[in-house]
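Structure in, sequence out. Go:
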């Protein structure tokens, strides 16, 4: 049986969702974040990086969300439930699968970090300087980058229901985490098509089952 090493409020929620879409049996091994929001040391016993998700399957130890999703689709999806059929949609699926963590999530992580420089656990004496630095970087550069990416996603979803086109795919599963983070941290409004896509994925029975299995899921705002 597939084993998912699942950290609460983490990217491993996407793996559980994919397994539910494919109707595959799996077991969850649960981990709770430390007070610092870091993963517990126990995860390093599973994979040297100590991150989640990690999936075990027939002696294989698989890490990285995109790689896991590709493996699940290629290994357990003969009916192509999570893979589009046309060459153009296949290419789009691959692009968004890698764009999610390669281009968008680093900016959203920076948004979280720079927004936190004026708060605990930064020492109180440094918080005014940290806050000023964080706000300065966001105003001068980071927020503009996020607007560019938000517009890019919004314009794409204005033309197609799903990220790979007319077909739901692993690209939508992979993009769910950064899009939720963008909506929580980006400080942007009027992303009509992005919000509509988010409502569509929330309405999928497999998404709802994944929340039931993985536990409450909420991405903190900046």
């Amino acid at each position: 049986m597939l084993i998912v090493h699942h950290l609460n409020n983490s990217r491993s929620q996407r793996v559980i969702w994919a397994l539910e879409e494919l109707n595959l049996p799996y077991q969850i091994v649960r981990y709770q974040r430390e007070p610092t929001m870091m993963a517990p040391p126990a995860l390093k016993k599973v994979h040297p990086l100590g991150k989640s998700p990690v999936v075990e399957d027939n002696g294989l130890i698989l890490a990285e969300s995109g790689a896991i999703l590709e493996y699940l689709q290629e290994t357990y999806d003969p009916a192509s439930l999570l893979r589009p059929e046309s060459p153009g949609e296949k290419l789009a699926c691959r692009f968004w699968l890698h764009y999610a963590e390669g281009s968008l999530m680093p900016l959203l992580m920076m948004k979280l970090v720079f927004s936190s420089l004026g708060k605990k656990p930064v020492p109180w004496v440094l918080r005014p300087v940290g806050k000023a630095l964080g706000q300065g970087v966001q105003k001068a550069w980071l927020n503009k980058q996020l607007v560019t990416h938000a517009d890019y996603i919004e314009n794409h979803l204005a033309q197609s229901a799903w990220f790979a086109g007319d077909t739901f795919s692993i690209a939508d599963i992979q993009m769910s985490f950064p899009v939720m983070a963008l909506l929580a941290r980006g400080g942007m409004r009027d992303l009509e098509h992005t919000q509509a896509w988010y409502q569509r994925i929330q309405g999928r029975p497999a998404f709802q089952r994944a929340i039931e299995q993985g536990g409450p899921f909420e991405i903190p705002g900046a």
